[in-house]
Amino acid sequence: MDLSLLLGFAGLCVLLALTPGPDTFLVLRFSLGGTRAGLAAATGSATGSLLWALAVAAGLATLLEQSAEAYRVVKIAGGLYLLWLGVRALIRRGRGVGDVDGAYGVRPAAAMRAGLLSNVLNPKVGLFFVAIVPQFLPGHDVTLGATLLLGAIFAAIGFVYFALIAVAAGKAIGWLRRPRVEQAIDRGSAGIIATLGVTTLVSATR
């Protein structure tokens, strides 16, 4: 594969990673429970990207492009999941339990699962692989190996960016755990996640 194509694709991935989305807020929120939880969420998101790449290579994700109903179903599922995460966190926070998914010190497995589901249930990621990835393949030949290579680049760049967020949050955990700061970030991130869920659901019904 042409090196210039790979570099161009990597640059695009960097720009996309820097654009805040559901995964960004999930990683930040889980990072309040410690660096390990944040890194686990980042790993889950990266794994989701690889699964999307595999689905595209297998021709499954093309359904999202060709079927409005399939796209709507995935979008609704993703919106409901984000809404559930946000509302659940807000309710538990209101009861005095500070947590990303129930309590600080959340298990990495739970954080990884949340990151994975958030990515897999985001049809925009699938459409990115369906519509954008082929443009960087020689002759637009969507082979398993080439698609997985680009998927690995996308996942790796996303993971590095999210890992930096997790590590930075872990280093600043003392400051982030100050009552006012913690409350602002906790409620803010939960509210944003819930809002993203509502926005996704509303757009899916149009």
Automatic annotation (TrEMBL):
Keywords, ordered alphabetically: Cell membrane, Membrane, Transmembrane, Transmembrane helix
Keyword Transmembrane belongs to the record: yes
GO cellular component, one term: plasma membrane
Organism of this sequence: Mumia zhuanghuii
Topological relation to the membrane, as annotated: Multi-pass membrane protein
Entry keyword annotation includes Transmembrane helix: yes
GO molecular function: amino acid transmembrane transporter activity
Name this polypeptide is given: LysE family translocator
Pfam families listed in its UniProt record: LysE (PF01810)
Membrane-crossing segments per the record: 41-61, 144-170
Cell compartments where the protein resides: Cell membrane
Primary localisation category: membrane
